[in-house]
Amino acid sequence: MKLEERYDNVISWFKANMPTAETELHYSNAFELLVAVILSAQCTDKRVNMITPALFARYPDAQTMAQGSVEDIFELIKSCSFPNNKASHLWGMAKMLTEKFNGIVPDDIEQLQQLPGVGRKTANVILSVIFNKPALAVDTHVFRVAARIGLTSNAKRPIDTEQQLVSHIAPELLPIAHHWLILHGRYVCTARKPHCSECGLHDFCLYFEENQKR
Q1: Strand, helix or coil at 58?
Q2: Residue 1's pLDDT band (boundaries 50, 70, 90)?
Q3: Is there a catalytic annotation at residue 133?
Q4: Which long-range contacts (CB under 8 A, 24 or more apart) does 64-69 make?
Q5: Is the pTM higher than 0.85?
Q6: Could you tell me if 128 and 107 are in contact, meaning their C-beta atoms sit under 8 angstroms apart?
Q7: Exposure of 134 in the CB half-sphere (CA atoms within 13 A)
């Protein structure tokens, strides 16, 4: 199967079977999503959603969080992974957001990546989810699923995966394609034991095709 045909089939399947796909993180504005995504690094969305209500009640915006303390933020997020680093990042992010961006989450990838705790993946999440820009964040699920299906090849780094996907997916589909691949990886194409028999993509999947030959 040619690469373009594989992309066409996969995208068509997702359009038909997952017409609505969005983040499972709970948020009500750009600042809250930015906080939630920083917290979600190597942590489940379920755990983050348990933490954020109390955190947002205490710190509803960048200004109030910047006026708080790393120690207090830590107490509110300590049940997540790497709470020391994340508390420091959240406070630093809020401080810079307040001092440099007037408390407003920027819609530019370079500016977003200036914020403590914000790498390219987090920045792309904000761009696609909040601003509906043609950006595609690559996390472990996207990286794995894209390679297994055969949408990417020889991608050694997340940026390699991002570049290959962006070059084959229409710009207007990139925001939802991010969620298609994440949710598929989270619930179907799981890391250890992918549920191939339950997967609607197996007719177009390189991983399935290769394992059928064994």
Answers
A1: helix
A2: confident
A3: no
A4: 65/35, 65/90, 65/91, 65/94, 66/91, 66/94, 66/95, 66/97, 66/98, 66/99, 68/94
A5: yes
A6: no
A7: 10
Are the C-beta atoms of residues 155 and 161 closer than 8 Å to each other? yes
C-alpha to C-alpha distances, 127 to 136, 137, 199, nearest whole angstrom: 9, 9, 30
Domains contained in the chain, CATH given: 3-21+136-212 (1.10.1670.10), 30-129 (1.10.340.30)
Nearest to 10 by CA among 158, 160, 152, 157: 152
- The single residue of 121, 133, 203, 213 carrying the catalytic annotation is 121
Distance of alpha carbon 83 from the chain centroid = 19
Of 86, 107, 139, 156, which is the active-site residue? 139
**Residues 138-147, buried b or exposed e (16+ Cβ, 10 A)?**
bbebbbbbbb
Q: E-strand spans in the chain?
A: none
Per the listing, tokens 């957001």 go with 97
Q: How many CB atoms lie within 10 A of CB 134?
A: 15
Tokens of 175: 């925001």
The distance in angstroms from the start CA to the end CA of the chain is 19
Per-residue pLDDT reduced to its tens digit, 17-34 = 999 999 999 999 999 999
Dihedral of the alpha carbons of 94, 99, 100, 106, in degrees to the nearest 10: 40
pLDDT at 212 > cutoff 80: no
Q: Active site includes 121?
A: yes
